[in-house]
Amino acid sequence: MTFKPTKYTLVCCSTGHRFEDEGWSLADSNCNCPSLIRAEYEQKQFNPRTELDGFYRYADWLPIRRTLEKSCAPVTYKSEALAEYLGLENLYITFSGYWPEKGARMETGSFKETEAYSVCARLPEDNDRILVVASAGNTARAFAKVCSDNNIPIVISIPEDNINALWFTKPLNDCVKIIASPKGSDYFDAIALSDKVCTCGRFMAEGGAKNVARRDGMGTTLLSAVEVIGRIPDAYFQAIGSGTGTIAAWENNLRLIEDGRFGNHKMRLYPSQNDPFTIMYDSWKIHSRSLVPMTAEEARCAAAEIDAKVLSNRKPPYSLAGGLFDAMEDAGGEIFKVCNSELRKWKSRFLELEGIDIHNAAAVAVASLEIALKEGKVSKEEVIMLNITGGGEERAKSEQEVVYAQPHLVMDPDLPAEEIVSKVLKLF
């Protein structure tokens, strides 16, 4: 069967200017202020494509050119045990990870697979440039897995301290190369390293939140929920490092309103951070579009203290037009902070109640739901979506042989770009 992509136009979130995608557009070249761009799809109704496998059932709202092998979609179900414990009548859990009994079969255990299967499917089959992705852990694992399975050349940049996140059920294909910033560095250092790699024209930056494919891939969590619930939720909970997943959910909320069959309301957004790495929480609390100041040393110290290491992005897309600040302003809601002790408590309790292990970041989201209830932000009868962004990792590791990848190169991001590029080129 020949895949037929959905036609779309790109829109600048700052100016409203519409333009065609030249293939890998990450911004509007005519816009002079920091802004995201958004995909506006020709298909205005949400109709899952049942003829397509896995994640690609949502292809009508994905900016992709093809489909890839071995994808899985997020799974949504109505909670019983956790809902009863919290006194909620309509709690729906959207689960991304490994939980075969629920139909969840993401091998990496994380919703970052939705990003990877979307971004990599945006690449044309004849692409001759090498993709570069920076990550604190989960994103790296997802992109490495997807690219390995589909023979797509890629450079993964990750802090060396997070290298244990790169576990797989089989050795990686040689098309995947891993570089790392040294011990003691953080996610921002990995980004700086990847930026220097991309000064060479043979490489292309994935783009992070600026890549519409990444956001719309992550936005399939809401599509999964609405497909099961039959309506837009009243409230949305997710832990955030960059806030991209919450932005993506808000964007799909707007598309669903335009559809008209699932409600005309905007769900309130309740993202959460792991205390003390709370740059977006702190900024939102003073209602500042600009991020509160945070030095590199402060960021590294805070990142070292939190259990949920993947939530340590010191320069998230918060302030950009169309970013998290705008999403929160438009939809309403609150940003919460959760300490390590509460994270650990809810990680254990979720396993006890729902029957599956979850990532530290997902436990932050569960803990924030309890806070919201105590503070009266949500009521027991409201339809609530809890985005469990990763889980089943321990289950997957217990059932399968696991191999750990090692970096091909460890480099100081302060090295000259020419030296970094030269070393990376030799890997291919």
Question: What can you see in these coordinates?
Answer:
- The chain has helices spanning 81-86, 112-122, 138-150, 187-197, 212-218, 220-229, 244-259, 279-285, 296-305, 324-331, 340-354, 360-374, 393-399, 417-425, and strands at 8-12, 18-19, 37-41, 75-78, 90-99, 104-105, 130-134, 154-159, 167-168, 176-181, 203-205, 235-239, 268-274, 336-338, 383-391, 403-404, 409-410.
- With 428 residues, the chain is of the alpha/beta class.
- Strands 4, 5, 6, 12, 13, 14 and 15 form a 7-stranded mixed sheet that branches. It has a 5-stranded parallel sheet with strand order 11-7-8-10-17, with helices on both faces. The protein has a 3-stranded antiparallel sheet with strand order 2-1-3, with no helix packed on it.
- Helix 2 (112-122) packs antiparallel against helix 5 (212-218).
- The two termini are 33 Å apart.
SSE inventory with pairings:
Elements: E1 8-12, E2 18-19, E3 37-41, E4 75-78, H1 81-86, E5 90-99, E6 104-105, H2 112-122, E7 130-134, H3 138-150, E8 154-159, E9 167-168, E10 176-181, H4 187-197, E11 203-205, H5 212-218, H6 220-229, E12 235-239, H7 244-259, E13 268-274, H8 279-285, H9 296-305, H10 324-331, E14 336-338, H11 340-354, H12 360-374, E15 383-391, H13 393-399, E16 403-404, E17 409-410, H14 417-425
Parallel strand pairs: 5-15, 7-8, 7-11, 8-10, 10-17, 12-13, 12-15, 13-14
Antiparallel strand pairs: 1-2, 1-3, 4-5, 5-6, 9-16
Helix pairs in contact: 2-3, 2-5, 5-7, 6-7, 11-12
